[in-house]
Amino acid sequence: MSDSLTHSAAAAAAPRPGPGRRLVVHGLGLAIFAAMPAIAAAAGDPFVVSLFTRFLIYAIAAVALDLVMGYGALISFGHAAFFGLGGYVVGIIAHHAAETGTIFGLATSNSALVVWPVAIGLSALLALIIGALSLRTQGVQFIMITLAFGQMVYFMLVSLEVYGGDDGLLIMERNTLPGLDLSDPTVFYYLCLAVLACWLLLCRRLVGSRFGMVLRGLKQNERRAVNLGFAPLPHRLAAFVISGAGTGLAGVLWANYALYVSPDMAAWSKSGEFMSIVILGGVGTLFGPVIGAAVFLGLEQLLAIWTEHWMLVMGPVLVAVVLFARRGLYGFLVGERSHD
After folding, report:
1. Alpha-carbon distance 256 to 54, whole Å?
2. What DSSP string describes 15-51?
3. Is residue 82's pLDDT more than 80?
4. Count helices and strands in the chain by DSSP H and E runs
5. Treating both helix axes as pointing N-terminal to C-terminal, what angle do 268-281 and 80-99 enclose, rounded to 10 degrees?
């Protein structure tokens, strides 16, 4: 007991690492992502650009999940519902644009300036409804009710026979954005990189603001935060809605990347993937999920070449990270006591 207290006191008294190591990791990561199209062109392997585009899109979804999971202790097992909804809004509008030119009597558009805000707004609205009902519970009940809502969205998408049902829906072309040719894989890659950078900056401002401090205070000691006059539900609901909108944005980009949407985008297994990425990268770190997405999807790609049962290897890796790296791979790289 005394040894444990001594160790805890020593750990608390230990100085935090300086920003140098963290800046090196962030700068190196940014340089690798920025230079990847040039590296792929030099190597003559355009698939690398496609693979890294997947990293970026999954990183956006994982950062969104970590906003509530890492900073609010809200373990949502239904976040794939927002990912699926964002993608399906793009697919459904594209379907009607190709078939009839109207949807519900309204003229359709292929412009990203129209389609993307609609998709993100509907994802935020769904998050508001799910959050308003789910946040009345806590702990295991919250996990189970978000899982139930996620599966409801999944089965609703499966039942949409007019939009492909189980088989999913093909999208003929990517949305258009003035001044950018999104059909060019390199242009689309850099757009995803810019979106991820903006999303990280927004989330960093949020977690460092008064709102973020209250969210973290509720995570650490809800009773104390309530006694100080902060209401838990509005803060947690706002975080849940912002997180849902961010995950919907990732779904929008995925639909444009794959030119295909299916109910699997909203399945519980997809929520599990996002959660595994956050745990691997580092819960409660904004840049950790980016590293987690790259490592998780990269290992998946490599291990799938060797065996279709790639989770047999990925599982022990996740267990090892949980046991030996308290802040995930990000903590291992920059130091467990370093801020991101």
Report:
1. 11
2. PPPPHHHHHHHHHHHHHHHHHHHHHHHHHT-THHHHH
3. yes
4. 14, 4
5. 130
Hunting for tokens 């806590």 — which residue is that? 138
pLDDT at 228: 86
What three-state secondary structure class fits 90?
helix
Token pair 């935090």 is found at: 16
Tokens 């961010």 sit on residue:
246
169 three-class SS: strand
State the Cα–Cα distance between residues 306 and 156, nearest whole angstrom.
35
- pLDDT tens track for 164-186: 899 999 999 999 999 999 999 99
Tell me the chain's radius of gyration from C-alpha atoms: 21
Residues 294, 55 contacting (CB under 8 angstroms): yes
Share of the chain above pLDDT 70, in %: 93
The CA distance from 287 to 284, in Å, is 9
CA distance 42 to 36: 10
Is residue 15 pLDDT above 60, yes or no? no
The dihedral built from the CA positions of residue 118, 119, 124 and 130, taken in this order, carries a sign that is: positive
pTM: 0.90
